[in-house]
Amino acid sequence: MDTELLIIDDESEIIIEVDTDVEVLEAAAQGPPGPPGPSGVVIYTRQSTGALSAMRVVWEDDAGAVSALDSADEDHIDLLCGLTLTATSDAGQVTVQRTGAVDDLAWNWTPGRVYLGADGALTQSPPSTGFDVLVGVAVSPTRLILNFQDPIELE
Description:
The chain has strands spanning 2-7, 13-18, 42-48, 57-60, 65-68, 80-84, 93-103, 112-116, 122-123, 131-132, 134-140, 143-147, 152-153. By secondary structure, the protein is mostly beta strands.
């Protein structure tokens, strides 16, 4: 064994013994693959404050409840939470997605940018007042890749 002297101050000394001998006992084989890693999609469940449609952009309050977010809502624009995947007819649980791809056969997007509109609706027309919030990019008529951007206040 090797030894190493470590001096802390004028009155203290520590001697460390280091075992530097390495012995290979057996060559290892590759193990089985592990589970797949995260896919980059963030989905969670929240309580809504009232009736809420699917495919609406929502904001989250300090109690963890979500409400539709309007592109003119300066009080809550910085609390954007995600896009609802489910709906509720009254205050109930909804599934919210923050990142990744979302598919909806009812959509008919032109490939390109998608913005936050009125009452949480999605639109391909950027707003002229309130806040410009890029929600993501339509890559096909029925697929949207979520990529929420910081709001830009319009004057």
